[in-house]
Design goal:
The protein is mainly alpha-helical. Helix content is 63%, strand content 7%. It is elongated, with a radius of gyration of 23 Å.
Length: 206
């Protein structure tokens, strides 16, 4: 690994000195795309000439890097508002969109986290005065999470900053690329399959 790392660094420094932004695979025959992704995941986007040996690791690495970057930017934007973070923001978003309240299990499913993680987040939000727990009149055994007036105000203030951060993050994309990305990410996450199954189920219930 050290030998491969030194080899890539030598090629990379040479190309940077020459003002070249891309490194062709043919210029580094001792390296594989897998090793480049493992050693320098960020630099791997500058490597070209990979059509003969497509490497899914590059795509996965780029996807992870983009997700980390997006999460960091949104978290920074959300934290400009006291008592807020990106995790709290998304939990509050789900609750605000459901005025009737949501159970912890429902919140966990929406956020794709465990029931335990959702419960801890709700505990912290409740301690901060942003949400409250309420038992349903029709079913006293069931408890739902509802947003407080302070929670709604904090969320609305944070949403302004988050929307600006999101718009800035996606600004390099054209409108066509924007919707193409939405479609591809939905397919990768299984969201389209879930939505089609839900629509089919709703139709059968009618």
């Amino acid at each position: 690994m050290d030998g491969a790392k030194n080899t890539l660094r030598q090629f990379w420094m040479r190309y940077k000195a020459m003002g070249v932004k891309c490194l062709r695979m043919s210029d580094a025959p001792l390296l594989s795309m897998e090793s480049i992704v493992m050693i320098f995941p960020m630099e791997s986007r500058f490597v070209t000439d990979v059509s003969s040996s497509f490497c899914p690791e590059i795509l996965f690495s780029s996807l992870v890097n983009a997700q980390i970057c997006a999460w960091s930017k949104i978290d920074k934007a959300a934290k400009t508002v006291p008592k807020m973070s990106v995790a709290r923001y998304f939990i509050l978003q789900s609750i605000v969109n459901h005025p009737e309240g949501l159970g912890v299990t429902e919140l966990a499913r929406m956020q794709r986290i465990t029931d335990g993680a959702a419960s801890k987040l709700c505990d912290r939000l409740e301690s901060a005065g942003l949400v409250t727990r309420k038992r349903l009149e029709k079913d006293k055994r069931r408890q739902v999470i509802m947003v407080t007036s302070e929670g709604r105000a904090v969320f609305e203030e944070a949403r302004t900053h988050v929307r600006q951060a999101v718009a800035q993050f996606f600004s390099p994309l054209t409108t066509e690329e924007y919707f193409q990305l939405i479609d591809m990410l939905r397919r990768l996450s299984g969201e389209e399959k879930y939505r089609s199954q839900r629509i089919k189920s709703d139709s059968n219930d009618q």
